[in-house]
Amino acid sequence: QVQLVESGGGLVQAGGSLRLSCAASGRTFSNYDMGWFRQAPGKEREFVAANDWRGWRGSSTDYTDSVNGRFTISRNNPKNTVNLQMKRLNPEEPADYYCAEGKTTMTIVDYWGQGTQDPVSS
Asked: Rounded CA gap, 38 and 52, in Å?
């Protein structure tokens, strides 16, 4: 049974930084892509970042345009964790973040975490 457990959420001031972590269990972590999504109230969940493990070639990362240059996704395969370092957060950004495990740069999501709330105060 696959489980994804997020941590690191909390209130942050506008312009501030926050680091989210996700611990995965239940299947071979390095065989799958890991990613983060976020969701605003009443809106669809949107892609934020993906980290695809390419074996000896290392990780391949992808970001949605609005976070490119501000967010960094990284993974630690021996620890089965994926992190999202977020900088220069603004209050207009969705507050609920979800860890995900899947394939093809997160175009296919097999499992979701329970989500973490990271509201940004103005």
From this structure: 18
34-38, 47-51, 62-66, 104-108: least confident range: 104-108
Instruction: Please tell me the distance from the alpha carbon of residue 15 to that of residue 25, in angstroms, as a whole number.
Output: 33
Contact 93, 39 (CB under 8 A): no
- What average pLDDT does this structure show over 37-49? 94
Could you read off the pLDDT of 94-104 as tens digits, one per residue?
889 999 999 88
Instruction: In whole angstroms, give the CA distance from residue 66 to residue 70.
Output: 9
The set of residues, in sequence order, having a beta carbon less than 8 Å from that of 21 and lying 6+ positions away, is 6, 7, 8, 81, 82, 83, 84
Exposure of 24 in the CB half-sphere (CA atoms within 13 A): 28
